Structure formats: structure tokens, C-alpha cells
């Protein structure tokens, strides 16, 4: 063994160091509080500890009617003054009414002014000046907090939209308006709030049933292990039962089509052709024609003949595929530690995802507060221009545009770092894809090395090396990091292009240019196919790397041509393996799902008292079913890698050896018998 693809290894290490540096720079400049806490018009966080807003955790909008939708409120800045408050308003009130009665109803004034700018306590100031300077809101309406922001407390009464059981409100400017005017500013909030209550119930169900969910997943793990072990004995039986079942079903379909064809004989109109009746939206019309059933019968006969001919001519290759499946089960039985390696891959990918997500958040919040002029007058030439809140009152803007304010707009910056935030985000995504593909490649190469050591052992299991999985992992890291990184890099480039194409497709979805949509669709399809092809090549290249220790390009070339020389065997093995593993996943997920259904619906008398009382029994049920499928997928992915490795070893064995004493076969006795050899030549230890 020697180190392979050293240049790519060095580049990979440098990129990782650069990625760490990018994370540090993002951590220095970023501030996730900008995502966690709402920001008022002064650039201060609501609810931040050790500040004046520590107990003011909710953002209040002076005039929510100026906000187009909740999306604008949450992601952008609404063109109205925003303050941090401790609670949302719980009543209707206008500044005009409160000011007129502040002398004999001071409680109303004290309640209203908590929604005014901090320090404002001058009810004698004219209403026009207060509204111009936006010292106080012109009105307050009953609201409730959502996403730490005050939204109107909508409800529906007898099909009529209301706020606090009222259909109208005063806008504080002398007009009475209907609450439907608030609909656009808070569109969809009711549905989201309802979803929030459903979410709380789902959380409660998880809190009650998590213990039983884990038990269900543990059962799925045991069943998956049993299925893999039993494949040694049942792979052939399961496959042939399925094949003959398909043949029988198609045979019944042929008989049924003939029966319908004969039954319609002599019935008026049944002898018409499809061309005679033309296109009909009701498909049942075609079922009244003899020609339809004759066509069905011919199609089914052709399919039946094709399947039977394939079984006749490919019977030996099918037997080899089944034998390799059994051999894979035997190999896993000798190297049981491989079944738990997916946990390592899962941990590595989880680390990559976490680092990418944290870095992306810090990059997205790597900006300084940017303030802009907000003016009530539409003709103010300074509107939306940047400003400095500390010096704003000394400028001429307030004189030329009465009531204009310098309010917080967004986070950004003009420095070189801030200009290239998008490039950094793109680099973050690219390196993330590279690392994830490397983690997957490392797992595939490690498993391939372990299973190859099983195949090339002269006497099984006596000659299998001690700790084959750990030895293979060490070889992959020590010698082949560069090769694995090279393969992962090629795949990451294609995946990044696919991400960019998806982004462009999303942005151009509303365009009417048919040629652009067609071109994007073709490009997406081509790169999807390219990604699938590269994954297939990479997987087999990693197997060859694990066996021979050559570089990536050489291994990929040798694997590709080896597979092309055995293309029929590849196709048969691939389909047989896919079918049996898919059947196993369905059996595991379906079996555990049925058991979970009877348990959570309290239909098992023995455990009726133990079953928790749930709001939605489908919450833990779906979790168990999906989790069981993923658990089975994790175990079966090891099995699929084992079969692929053994297949390449088998093909290499056939090409390099002839069964003589000098060049004995390393394949098992069952494979040897299928090939029609007289006797397995003895191999020296």
C-alpha cells in the first residue's frame, strides 16, 4: 500500500482548514441574536438580557395596516415604527380618545402610553404632532404574540371575521374601518396559529410516547438483523416465490382478458374499434369493446413470454446472484461489526450538517445595523436613504420632511467581507457537500475493505484478519484519503450545480418564457442522471481502491470496464438485490408499523393498560414506521455494499484465476458449483 492522490489529499486538508477559518470569521462577525430576537426601530433586540428590553420580549407595530403580509413582518422591515413591549394590547383604543379623557381617566392613558416611545408622557402635545412624529400609535387593537410579534387576535364568528368579537374599529384618524382591512396585513395567521396548537399536541404525544417509540425502533433493528441472517437460507425461496407469483398473476390476467373478449361476443357495439369511438374521458367506454380486451391480452402475453424467456436464458446468472446474496449474509455473520458502521457515518454527517448550519446562520447575521430614513410624506426625497441615528436630528431632513425618522432597516455592510457574504455562503454549501460525500465514501471504502478481506481469505473464517473493519478503516484514512476526497469532489461539483439549477428554477417559476423552462428542465434531468452515474462509478471505484490500493482514476477505470465485461450479471444482481432489500424494508417497516398500530390504539389486551393516551395516535405510529424503514435502510445498505464488493471480487476471481493449483479460485463452494466446475481446488493457507 502507498498513499494515493496526494495532491487532492493536500487540497482537501487545506480546504478543511479554510472551512474552519471561515467558520471562525463568521463566528466573529455574526450574531445569531438577530435571528432569535426581534429588532425594534432603534436596532435593539427585544428580550435580550442585561438591556433595557430584557423584560420586553415582543415586537409591537405602530400601524400594522402598513404591513403587506406576515412574511414582510418576519423577514423584512415594515414601514412603521416598531417597539419592544412586555405584552400585546388586549383592547381597542385610539390616541385621540385617550388624550381627550386622560385627565379624568388616567388609567387609560397609563395603559396606552406603554405602547408609545420610551419616555413619552406628554398628553398635551397636539394629536397631529404626535402622529407626525410617531410618538404614539394612532390606535391599538387586541393582539396576541406570534413569533414574538404582536398580531391582531383574529377569530371567526358565524363565518364573519372579527377581532375581539368586533367587526369594525376606529383607526385613530377619524375613520371607522372594517376588520377585514387587517386581513392583508395578517393573511394566513389564523391557520398558522391553529397549526401551532396542533404542534403543541404533537409535542405532548412525543413526550408521552418516546419510550415506546424507542422500543419499536429497537424491535425494527432486531427484525432487520434477523432478516439479514435468514437471507442466507431464504433469498432463493423469496425470489422464486415472487417470480412465479408474477407469472401466475399475469397468467390470470391473460385468462380474464380472454374471458371478457369472449363474453362481449355478439353484444351490439362491442365490435367497434377505438378509432370509431374516438377519444372519451370515461375510460369505462373502452372496456365495452372487444378490441380493448384483445389488446390487453396480447400485451400480457408478450410480457409473460419475455419473463419466461429471461428466466430460461438468465437462470444461471440469477442463481449466481442468489448465491452472492447468501454469501453476503454469511460474510456479515462473520463480520457483525460492519452492521453498526452506519452509526459512524451518521455521526460524521450530523457533524457536517451542524457545522454547515451554524456557519450559515453566522454568515447570514454578519452585518451591522443599517438605518434608513422613514418619512410619512411620499414626496420626501430623503426617504429610504441611509442615515445615522446619532446625528439625524442635527440634519435638515427633519425640517424638509416633518415627521421623518431614522429607523433600523436591516443588517448589512459595505466592507469587503460583507460584499462577499453570498460567495462565502456558496463556499460553505460546496464544502459541506464535499465533506458529506467524503463521509459516505469513507464508509463505503471501509466496508468494502472488510468484506474483501472475507472473500480473499483462503479458509473462511480462519484466514479472515483480526478486526477487519478497523483495519480497513485505518487503511482508508492512512493511504486513500486523497482518492476518497477526489471522488467526493467530483460528486460535490455536480450536486452544487444541481442546487444552483433548482434555485434558478424556483426564481424563474413565474416566467412565461417556455424555452427557458424547457432548457432548465433538460439541464436538471441531465445533471440528475450524471449524479446517479457518478455515484455508481464512485461506489465501485472505492471497492477497487479497498481491494488493490490504487488511485481513484485507475480504480474507477478498472471497475467500469470490469462491470462492462459482466454487464448482464450486473443488471441481474442489481435487480435481484434491489427487490429483496426493498421487500425486507417493507416487511420490517410494515410489520413493526402494524404492531405499533395495534399497541397505540389499545387493541392488544395484554398491553392495553400500558398504552399511553394520545391526542393523535398517528404521531408515534408514523414515527415508528418511518424510523423502522430508516433503521432497515441503514442495515441493508451495509448488506448491499457487501454484495457489490463480493460481486466485484467474484468477477476479478474469474478473470485472474482458473481453478488450477497454481491459480485456485477464492469463491465459495456454492458459487463454484453453479459455474459448473468439477471441484474446488484446494488453497494453501
TrEMBL record:
Keywords: Antiport, Cell membrane, Glycoprotein, Membrane, Transmembrane, Transmembrane helix, Transport
Keyword Transmembrane listed: yes
TM helices/strands, residue ranges: 7-28, 210-230, 237-255, 293-314, 334-358, 431-456, 477-501, 579-600, 621-641
UniProt-listed InterPro entries: Choline_transptr-like (IPR007603)
Localization in the cell: Cell membrane
Pfam annotation, one family: Choline_transpo
Chief site of localization: membrane
Protein name, UniProt field: Choline transporter-like protein
Gene: Slc44a5
